[in-house]
Amino acid sequence: MIILRGFGVSNYYNKLKLCLLEKNIPFQEKTTYPWERDSFLQSSPLGRIPFIETEQGALSESQVILEYLEDRHPERPLLPKTLFARAKCRELIQHLELNVEWVARRLYRQAFFGGVVSEETRNDVREKLAAGLNALSRLARFSPYICGAEFTAADCAAFFHLDYVRQATLKIYGADMLDEHLSGAADYLAFMAERPHFRTTMADRTKALSVFHSLGVDYAG
Ligand SMILES: N[C@@H](CCC(=O)N[C@@H](CS)C(=O)NCC(=O)O)C(=O)O
To answer: Which residues make Cβ contacts (< 8 Å) with residue 150, sequence separation at least 6?
Structure first.
């Protein structure tokens, strides 16, 4: 049995939770917070969540875990069948995470966790995020899924990543940078939100958020 470790506020955690649910893989969730990292550095060497525990040991980094789940449970694939389409799907996820989510993440301290980011950071992020979103818009299909006609792992990644990017840019810049740079994203997110596993995972996120707030910890994302 796979144990998913992390907490339901995390977009990377929810990416994997969606993959597990959509692939119908049995799993358990064990709430684990990044600030408890001293207790799990052997499992996730940088102290990040999510990570999983398997019969053979622990595994960190959400994309590595996603690929492991694909290899371990090929019966309900979340990557396209043909070699090139599989690579295109991975390409999209990599651009999304490296050039969009990871850039916007620098805003989260202020957008979500009551901290402050400098004007220099805000300006730098705005420029880099615009470039990352423009790049993503050259790859995203939204017809109706992000890679095209098939539902894929990229949809599991995109849903929570893009939602945080949208929320963060609205809070920091007073403008939805998805609307400005990623045409079709708003309709896509509304469409995906109707999917049963997406809906339940969003509801779980709301509950996890209120538990997180009740803890009153200093956390920056
Ligand atoms: N590249 C990592 C990113 C994971 C990540 O950034 N996790 C955040 C929570 S969403 C975290 O653990 N933050 C605490 C920290 O970086 O110390 C992955 O794909 O798993």
So the answer is: 80
